[in-house]
Design brief:
It is a single chain. This protein has one domain. It has eight helices and two strands, in the order H-H-H-H-H-E-E-H-H-H. By secondary structure, the chain is mainly alpha-helical. The chain has a two-stranded antiparallel ribbon with strand order 1-2. The structure holds protoporphyrin IX containing FE. The site of protoporphyrin IX containing FE has 19 residues, from helix 2, helix 3, helix 5, helix 6 and helix 7.
Length: about 220
């Protein structure tokens, strides 16, 4: 068990599992966010956001989410730095059997996504958790944080919209390689299945990033 945390392959395994968890998180997160633009009112979005922050089970999942995010980032940067140090002198730890264009830029896209997540969390998550500035709305006499209006106000700022879209493009680059690479690390490298995993990874990436991009664009132009 201690090998899992100390060996390079163990760290890569943890990174891949955490990555797959984040891949699932993105779908849930996108689904909730899309309700903001596919609904006439902000009610379903605000209620979903409220449910996500008040339900005990979801709170536990949230702790796992932040743990996963941390482990994925920490081991990702750690292994890359180790790889840089070892390269030329020993051997390459990242044994990319097929080095694709996107695999070469995983660390660069990771840095941009990290900056994005820090800004994103401070704009929405930390504000909703720790600041008293969030407006409140009432549905059936019950009060909710109006996170929807916060998102809409942000996406009325052109610079913010452009920043988000640029970050989504980098997220797409990261996912294009990360998706199938996670499966490969977990041992699923097969002549028959790998091409399918790659196709699913590309479809997933296109749908998820297009869905996220639609939100700021739609809010900026139509809401
Ligand atoms: C247009 C796109 C997006 C919108 C409108 C959006 C909106 C939000 C909002 C309002 C919150 C706070 C929820 C709460 O406190 O209850 C949040 C949290 C969060 N977002 Fe996003 N988000 C977007 C894209 C992303 C992307 C692409 C990522 C990851 C790369 C991401 C990662 C997170 C994380 C980790 C949290 C904290 C956990 C959570 O509250 O679920 N978000 N987002």
């Amino acid at each position: 068990m201690s090998n899992l945390f100390t060996s390079s392959i163990g760290k890569k395994l943890i990174m891949s599992l955490a990555g797959l968890f984040l891949i699932v998180f993105l779908v849930v997160h996108l689904g909730i966010n899309l309700s903001l633009i596919f609904s006439d009112t902000r009610e379903s979005f605000n209620k979903a956001a409220h449910f996500m922050s008040s339900n005990l089970l979801i709170k536990i999942v949230e702790i796992i989410l932040f743990g996963g995010l941390f482990l994925h980032m920490f081991y990702g940067f750690y292994l890359q730095i180790k790889n840089w140090i070892a390269r030329g002198r020993f051997y390459s730890i990242n044994n990319y059997s097929q080095t694709s264009f996107f695999s070469k830029f995983m660390i660069h896209t990771a840095v941009i996504i990290t900056v994005f997540i820090i800004i994103h969390l401070s704009d929405f998550f930390f504000k909703s958790k720790f600041s008293g500035e969030i407006p409140v709305v009432f549905y059936n006499g019950k009060s909710y944080h109006d996170l929807g209006i916060l998102v809409i106000e942000k996406f009325k700022i052109p610079g913010f919209v452009i920043f988000y879209i640029v970050c989504f493009i980098f997220l797409a680059f990261h996912l294009l390689h990360g998706f199938w690479s996670a499966f490969q690390t977990l041992g699923l490298d097969h002549r028959l299945y790998t091409p399918w995993i790659k196709v699913i990874g590309v479809l997933y990436t296109i749908l998820v990033t297009a869905g996220f991009t639609l939100i700021p664009v739609y809010i900026y132009f139509f809401m």
